[in-house]
Amino acid sequence: MINETPRVRFAPSPTGYLHIGGLRTALYNYLFARNTNGKFILRIEDTDRKRYIEGAVENLLNTLKWVGLDYDEGPEVGGDYGPYYQSKRLDIYKKYAEELIEKGKAYYAFDTPERLKQLHEEQLKKNEQTKYDKFALTLPEEVIKQKIESGEPYVVRLNVPPDKSVIVDDLIRGKVEFDTNIVDDQILIKSDGFPTYHLANVVDDHLMKITHVIRGEEWLSSTPKHVLLYDFFGWEKPIFAHLPLLLNPDKTKLSKRQGDVAVEDYKDKGYLKEALINFVALLGWNAGDEQEFFTLDELIHKFTLERVHKAGAVFNLEKLVWLNAEHLRSKPNAELLQMLREELKKSKYADLKIEDNKLLLIIEAMKPRVEFVKEFITKCPYFYEAPTEYDEKVIKKRWKEDSPGLLLKLRDKIAQLDDLKKEDYENILNNLAEELNIGKGKLIHPVRLAVSGSGTGPGIYNLLYIIGKDECINRINRALEKIKTTNPDLTEEN
RNA sequence: GGCGCGUUCGUCUAGUGGCUUAGGACGCCGCCCUCUCAAGGCGGAGAUCACGGGUUCGAAUCCCGUACGCGCUACCA
Fold first, then answer.
1. Measured CA A203 to C1' B3 distance, in angstroms
2. What is the pLDDT of residues A29-53, one digit of tens each?
3. Which pTM was predicted?
4. Which nucleotide shows the minimum CA-to-C1' distance to residue A170?
5. Are A447 and A477 in contact (CB under 8 A)?
6. Contact, A254 vs A261, CB < 8 A?
């Protein structure tokens, strides 16, 4: 097995969306496969008909596509080991279940749900291990045959031998030992003819030549059942690697109740796939150095299962936001332009005509000041429309008695020139300040307020330049009226 | 209840017996830069390494126990 090319799989059950924990599992499988020149396989575990959800698989596939975790074999792309939907492999599971029965490693059982429930409750009451009592094993062969022929519903159960020890050798946790006396005779084939996860995953992993089973820690407890199955079939076991869980802030398993768990929720909120992947990769793994910012390629090169650690990790948004900003800033402006265009279409400025050049200037100016693409709009609406309001706090702090007069002078200076460049605004402002023998802040702050309505933003010369000469003049005029009315005691004189 | 896994700053983590007065990152605070806000640079607060016993000249690191947390305990995956 060591010499074979690694084959790993991500095997989600289609629950309607891709869980963020599922993304992490998928990512680690993907990184491992790409790092080792192996194959990454997607298999849909849709064996629970009661939980069938329309469109769930499609959604899952789309999300995987969005994050860019491309698989070598699976739905839509096919492969030599299909079908990759478990619901299309029923006859295979049936065949292997029968093989087990012949070997005496599994058996038919006909117990009613009522009996099972009663048994369970009795065991609970007596503080015993809750498991099947192997009653069906006492049935004579003829009776079994008869029941089946008469169409009585049945299940197939795993015949777990008592008093044995099963060792699960886990790459991350080492050897974990289980006593078979606490392992239940797991149902392998349900009465509807569908297999349970335990049978299906073992059969498929074997048939699909999976070399490493990389999955969440919640599976560790049922792994002895899987080990037993491999042994009963006489198959070589894959290498197991059980990943630590992703946790809520209160340390319980990451769940809906305490925030967003669907990858698409994060997509919708404007998180970049690069940031999400980077962040989720760091939840349970690190490169061993002090790098925190990773591209997918860097992750592929540096990822090893050996550096996955054991404890669960709280999914904490603050670092994700930071990473989002970091990845945003690392993107070329041309790419951000496309993203901003998309964002604009969804905004109230959808009908606004803006040239690429102007958007590029906005992007350049706002890049260090935003964490999300949409903030190229929301954090600087003044680039898209004239301010309708002026920040009260800023008026109080920056709008002095002499501000209107100074702004008037500044406005006239601006009006005198054409084809203004960034430097021209700088010169105008500095010269005027010098001329009047005042600090340039006396001009800068009021004009920023007048032109943007805000006290914060990009450098003022740049700000004026991007807004443009005519618009600057208009806005100054408008501010002179507006702010005067807000503060009637201020005059334009002096 | 049983079984299993885990436990280093608020959070993500480094650390595999001496290099550790426990390092980094996010967040927080301060300073610098500066026309504002960011970004960036510098610095700070923040972890008696869950607790208790051992082993050892020496333990976050090895062993045992306890506590706590989590997972599993379905004809779910």
1. 25
2. 999 999 999 999 999 999 999 998 9
3. 0.94
4. B5
5. no
6. yes
